[in-house]
What we know:
By secondary structure, the chain is an alpha/beta fold. It is built from 14 helices and 17 strands.
Amino acid sequence: MVQSVVYAIYTRQSAEPRDGLSSCEAQFQSCLRYAQAEPGAGNVWIGERFDDEGISGRTLDRPALNRLRERAKVGAIDRVYAAALDRYSRNVTDTIQLLEELEQAGVEVHIAHQPELCSAPESRLLRHILASFAQFEREIIAARIAETRSYLKKHGRRLAGPAPYGYDADPITKQLVPNRIEARRVRAMFRRAARGQPPSEIARRIDHLGWRTKRWISKRSGRPVGGARWTPRQVLAVLRNPVCLGEFADGDSTRPGSHKPIVDPQSFYAVQEQLDQRRPSSRSDRHRLPFPLRGKLVCPRCRRRLCTYTITRRWGLTTIVYRYYRCRSTAGGRPPCQGVQYPAGEVEEAVRDALADTRTWQTLIDAETALTPARADVLTAVWTGLDIPTQERLLAQIVESIAFSRRNSEMRITFKGDFTEALIPVITQFTEDNR
């Protein structure tokens, strides 16, 4: 009787899928055909996809690859297929580490497009050589991109991205050329701003005139983008953009551009002075906003820590700041996850409510010997008796991480191993105050 061989298929695509076409799907089908054609009738697919879409091969810290490695550790798979060696990694050290880890777990590594790379000593040498070529190719591409960017900067050329309002991209040189109608409208915006009109008023006026934002065709989706009503933020972006002066933003400064300016320096800097006068004298208020769970919430998709994010809205003389925890990280060479955003107040209230539940404290008492003498109802009373600022201060000290389920946004709180050091003084003070 032929023993069944459970296999998995790993795929990776560096760029996000375009037009619904995924390289991961093509890799999967290629590996599936290869696995089914291999000798032996006992090959069984594990039934779980391991696809890392839009993730660079520079690091092994990838969601699907991590799941695959966990399955290998527990003996859930006997063989793993990939379309090519560089799908695992483009780093020699990482490739060798990963392949040795899989083989030590008893997992055979098969390459669909390079079937000669088996586990024989000669194949090991060949794999290492090919892994070196994959890393060499990545480094050469990176060096060429850096070289090209340096050349373009030196010669005042545009690097990338859609053409800003007021300009079009020349179809041959890809450099900026003034758009006659848009350039005239940009100058009109500057004249209004120089007379003291705020961006919100300018946006309202030009919307009334029927002006719309720039419209172009997205290379990624092939669909039209833009052509919408103006917002104050978009007007401000036009007024602040040094491209109008024939320059490009370059970090905190600017660099000369080879394109023609559409606004004279006197008008540009006069408007900058007007805008600077409206700006608050200090931006430190934003950083003083309370985010007691800063760096503790985990994105349910990419497992990176969520960042803090604020949106300011003005209603007449009233300014309202909305706080959010949002996936904005680019760690690991992966773009932020779209749509992963949680209102800060709701999350913080949910965590405070969880600690106002006696069952939460009972679970902690059972797991923590330092709290054994305390009673769950006493700890609940201590927590609910604290004011919100004190609760938020303690949250930052006792919570390690908060993870959300991808399906129903269920919240799972993990507490720090030394959280009792922050709680015991509060319990002692509460006890003394209520004697």
